[in-house]
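Lay summary. Proteins are chains of building blocks that fold into shapes, and those shapes determine what they do. In this project we predict the shape from the chain. Here is one chain we studied, written as its sequence of building blocks.
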Amino acid sequence: MSKKKLYWLCQLAGWFVYVLLNLLFFVLQNPIEFSDLIIYFTWLPLGIGITHLFRTIFIRLHLMELKLYIQIPLVIIGSFINATLFYFGQYVLEIFVHDISTKIVFIDSIANIINYAFVFFFWSLAYFSYHFLLNFTQAEMQSLRWQANIKEIELNKLKSQLNPHFMFNSMNSIRALIDENPAKAKESITQLSNILRNTLMMEKNKVISFSDEVKIVTDYLNLEKVRFEERLNFDVKIIPEANEFFIPPLLIQTLVENGIKHGISKLTKGGDLLMTTEVKEDCLYVSIRNSGRYTANQISETGFGLRNSIDRLKYVFGEDAEITIQNEGDEHVLTVVKFPKYKES
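And here is the predicted shape, written in a compact code that computers can read:
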């Protein structure tokens, strides 16, 4: 329903209920005549007309844009003016309908005007409360839209930064093979093209299915296996429930890459990498266990990849998601990522 229709519906309903209540009290105390019914039901257009005029003046003069401490006195004064118009409007109607002149008693008139002023003040309170609530809600929604747009821009920025980073590391891996083993280098380029084809298709997506991410991770690990040969052993164990989740593209791949680059590659004998999944309380936990040693200042060494992953995770899931990194004994590092169920915003 439009705001205009809602306004008129509330006007009609509100004044109709007010007229009926007054008519009921009158009937309980006095015998009623047809002329009395006419007078009471003329209150309906009279009340609607006065309040609509009051609203129009407020809007035309932009009084609703003033500070609240200025608006309140204006509403109180307006309520007394409206009450005075309503009272004398009734007086004229009574003379016209009954065809008699009724004396105006000053004290009674003041008492009636004060009573009516409360009615018009209540009308103003209801109308302006709705107006401010509506404006506040719209402003709040606009603010949320702006925040969402800013978040989307930041997320796209992080994604655009990630592709050059990934390409640089992958091309370095292939470059090392060109002279040493051209056949393996050619195979690696094929694997890299598969990864890039998938990532380009996902470029516009904020999240992808976990199964699609696993395909990229597996291709990447196979690519690195060609480079490290016996120095790298890996295993990926995925439970079926994990495929029901959606995660930011290349997030797990980046963490796996960090585990190899800053852990296994620095070991003379190489090492192993194990990726497992677990679902608890509607959250997906992805564990990456790799050979190596993690220290607190390693964040500055790993640089962009880890920071990028943390930022993207927070942008998409908020504070419900997290990444934890810790040592397991002296030879292994455990990275655990918590993914809540993704809810489209």
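What the prediction tells us: The chain is about 65% helix and 15% strand.
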